[in-house]
Amino acid sequence: MTPRFPSSARDILALFERRGAEAVDVPVIQPADPFLDMAGEDLRRRIFLTESETGESLCLRPEFTIPVCRMHIEAAEAGHRRYAYLGEVFRQRREGGNEFFQAGIEDLGDTDINSADARSLADALALVTMLMPAQALTVSMGDQAVFEAVLASLGLPRGWQQRLARAFGAPDQMAAALEALSSGSGQKTELDDAIAALVARDDRAELEARIAARMTETGISPSAGRSPAEIAGRLIDKARLASVRLAPEAIAALQDFLSISAPLADASSTLQGFAARAGLKIDAALAAFDARVAAIANAGLDLGFIRYDAAFGRPLDYYTGLVFELHAPGQERPVAGGGRYDRLLTLLGAPAPISGVGFSVWLDRTEQAREI
Amino acid sequence: MAVTIALPSKGRLKEQAIAVFENAGYSIRQPEDARQYRASVDGHDGIEIAFLSASEIARELGAGTVDMGVTGEDLVRETLAAWDEKVEISARLGFGHADVIVAVPEVWFDVNTMADLNDVAAEFRMGHGRRLRIATKYWRLTQQFFSRAHGIQVYRIVESLGATEGAPAAGSADVIVDITSTGSTLRANHLKILDDGVILKSQACLVTGKGVLAGAEAALAREIVGRIGDSLR
């Protein structure tokens, strides 16, 4: 262990071992594309990019989850593995320095989702509690799956559900999306008569043929980018919804839902109350939620200091269920963050779906909080 | 000490910039040798003119190596991070109009707005396993508009150094962000501008570095801004 590492490094590695997670080494220099593909183009200005001699885009490791998942996929690991890491990450930040340490555990391939979720939360709490023993930590928790169940049970069109699901966790975008869907702005489409007639007749086959012909005429490859089938399908869906507006009751229900905030011990009954009030059937999602709460209680965690916030989510499309953050008193930003990302490994190229849940502790923040 | 003003080094932009200064009473004595990139102003020994390419002007203003300059607002906003901490736009000069816009293939009949494009970008990534590609030379403006103003994350910028409007037909990109003044190049390439796809309505501007406004030559710089402002009324 070089002096560069935080003084707590030995304790952290010992805790990983006690909790049965295997420490892995992740190279500092990583291909940049997987990070940009997952987090989006906006990440480009926040990471340290360089290029290899052969033109490959490389970056300094901005986080651990994606490299660990890629190692798991490349090794063609079957079954359940828990990978632990401790090391520096590099990000361009206006405040707080560009290099800092993170430690965490990625739990891949466990099919018992509830116990994996509970264990991840317990591991994160154990690690942060060890690092900041005297601090009264609080946990906030959210659930992408409950929100998606609410959207589905409101009977919203699929495209709308997806649009709102993408805005989950981003209040400004959520407000903008709700406003657009309730006012109908941007839903009308100006089409030339021939295309409009085909859309009105719902003649998908002829529409696709027209679009393909038009692509050929205008020099757009029908196979390189969006296909005629995609354009025709979305055009017909959009036309069907052109005169439909998000109903005031649906907006009220969504706003009611998003304002829910309750201690985890009361979250189930609060959600049931909401479902009854709004007349929604979200039983399966609530059952899954309850099973997770039970698993968390079984893992010996005190539900009293965990708070469920219905609006808490991350606007990244690979998060699928649980998200959580650990907060220390007097610190605005979380000292640890985690969540379930069952879509991530497939997006990174895994041939079959692999479930995953994990967390990362910001060691710069735990150190800082200790000094306060 | 002098105030250095950078003007475009060639073409119509150069002529129009010189005319703006003439109208404000600053007669620029052009060098006899056209390869000479420095000039002076009759009766104003405190002003030096430097002829630079339009994109260099924005960069040099940001670095503080020239004090004032005439360049496009698009180049100021694109070239300089936190541009408004470094320079101010002192006057909009009424020429060099160009809009920075988002355009998609005409045949994308279902796409008229950025909200449509957001839906399409998300579906595309799920369906094709890669991000929708945007060809542009405006990295910064594109990121600000897509990521921050519209919350679109899953796209990829493909750098384009010329003929951006040809990228969709060439198969190197799906969408473009580019400048247009009349839209005719876009139409010729069968592209359409999204209804809310105008990122910036740009024109040539007189731009002043914040450094000179805080320094010994501040009075002279303000006088130049004032006279040009008056002459435009």
Automatic annotation (TrEMBL), chain A:
Pathway the protein contributes to: Amino-acid biosynthesis; L-histidine biosynthesis; L-histidine from 5-phospho-alpha-D-ribose 1-diphosphate: step 1/9
Alphabetic keyword roster: Amino-acid biosynthesis, Cytoplasm, Glycosyltransferase, Histidine biosynthesis, Transferase
Binding site for L-histidine: E63, F64, T65, R91, Q102, E106, R314, Y318, Y319
Record's GO cellular component terms: cytoplasm
Subcellular location: Cytoplasm
Functional description taken from the UniProt entry: Required for the first step of histidine biosynthesis. May allow the feedback regulation of ATP phosphoribosyltransferase activity by histidine.
Note: This function is generally fulfilled by the C-terminal part of HisG, which is missing in some bacteria such as this one.
Subunit structure: Homodimer.
Record-given protein name: ATP phosphoribosyltransferase regulatory subunit
Automatic annotation (TrEMBL), chain B:
Gene3D superfamilies: Periplasmic binding protein-like II
Keyword Glycosyltransferase: yes
EC number from the UniProt entry: 2.4.2.17
Gene Ontology cellular component list: cytoplasm
Entry similarity comment: Belongs to the ATP phosphoribosyltransferase family. Short subfamily.
Function: Catalyzes the condensation of ATP and 5-phosphoribose 1-diphosphate to form N'-(5'-phosphoribosyl)-ATP (PR-ATP). Has a crucial role in the pathway because the rate of histidine biosynthesis seems to be controlled primarily by regulation of HisG enzymatic activity.
Record-given protein name: ATP phosphoribosyltransferase
Designated gene of the protein: hisG
